[in-house]
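Newbie here. two chains, one complex. Structure please?
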Amino acid sequence: AQTVTQSQPEMSVQEAETVTLSCTYDTSESNYYLFWYKQPPSRQMILVIRQEAYKQQNATENRFSVNFQKAAKSFSLKISDSQLGDTAMYFCAFMKHASADSNYQLIWGAGTKLIIKP
Amino acid sequence: NAGVMQNPRHLVRRRGQEARLRCSPMKGHSHVYWYRQLPEEGLKFMVYLQKENIIDESGMPKERFSAEFPKEGPSILRIQQVVRGDSAAYFCASSRLRYGEKLFFGSGTQLSVL
């Protein structure tokens, strides 16, 4: 069974600083997807970034980038030039590739609460 | 194009009552997923439905919980005889493809059982 671990329950940084959120996972699959979702106080679950395991290049989306280390099963999220609006819970999630059984299920970490201070 | 719509946003029930949670997927999406989120935890898969079919309900409790996604209208997650342990946020997500890895989530329904 797959598991996702986020070891940082809460982090706090000053506005404009860079922050890295960690995520490790365990799987025997060789092909899969990894995600970071943001959940602000509004509770809406928003997709931040997605990584396909067969791609070696790290995904980036504007100020958000990942450090994907497949051998180490690590998938950290870096937020550059942090903004007050980045304050939210951040969840790391895993999904099997399309060819696998139960591929539609997202397996979630427990989340990291990120606070951006003015 | 409206996103995934869930209602109500907040639902308060007394123990023993029924709770009905509704989810309208994004336009063009025929795959719906329900997840439950307990405080301080990530989401847990409950059920996956396509129009008129339950594909996988392995994450749903065997008793008191049921889900449907009729040909017309929203998907419904129904909890009968609610207990305090059912208090949680219930999220619905939809996708266009069977193997779609892009899930779009609603804002959830916060169920509080008194």
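Moderator note: Chain A has a mean pLDDT of 92. The radius of gyration of chain A is 14 Å. Thread marked as resolved.
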